[in-house]
Amino acid sequence: MLELKLMHKGKVRDLYAAGEKYLLIVSSDRISAFDFILPTPVPGKGALLNKISSFWFDRTGHLVKNHIVSTDIEEIRRQVAAPAGFDWDYMRGRAMLVHRAKRVDFECVVRGYITGSGWKEYLKQGSVCGIRLPAGLKEAARLPAPIFTPTTKADQGHDENVSFETMAAALPAGLAEKIRATSLALYKFAAEHLEKRGILLADTKFEFGLLDGELMLIDEALTPDSSRFWDAAKYRVGTSPESYDKQYVRNWLEGVGWDKVSAPPELPAEVVRGTLKKYEEALQKITQAG
What is the pTM of this model? Predict the structure, then answer.
């Protein structure tokens, strides 16, 4: 039996060591925005995130291996020895047993549209992460082709946009190029899948690790926490499109005038319900046949 030991509590996920070769990743109901963990959880959110990630991991194995060992809670229980008081009922639907890979310490962002921090940088410099873009783009415009824009990986505080050259200089020869190509292939596959279901994939971020020298997709994949999903029917260039992700929460926080420095406010019940509804709609649309 693999012994479980809590290693790390992230913004959203709890990470347990399961022996030396595996990890147990648990998606909590915590929600973060502007690099803060908000004081109000969204009940059921973690299980929805887990289902969405599992869906994508299952369907992208032809592009890159991933770290999944099992998402079946009964199978996991047979393999691990949990400490006293461990709440297996809570874990149901929100836990995955994974291979323990050596994390690549960059977040691998792919942008198909100009928005968010990329839009802000474009307004100042005409580029994103050193990539020159056409002049005169409007907010939320579709880019001529998706671009790979890595960031530093920060467990606390801000991730910082960096150039591809900076990433390549920090990694073994050829690895950054492989990660870029894989990230763009994953984005293309997901964007085509989603567009058939009425969703535009504005941008998303991936995390990778190495296991015995082989590249592997880790953490989560194409969830509302790591992606901007826009309603294709309501998409308009020059506006902030309606989304199926935590932009709903960001908009509320900005609307109440929170300074993004002091402790964040509690979310009212209607915002919690509205957020959960967005995540439920995302799951339904992503996984529907089509």
Answer: 0.93
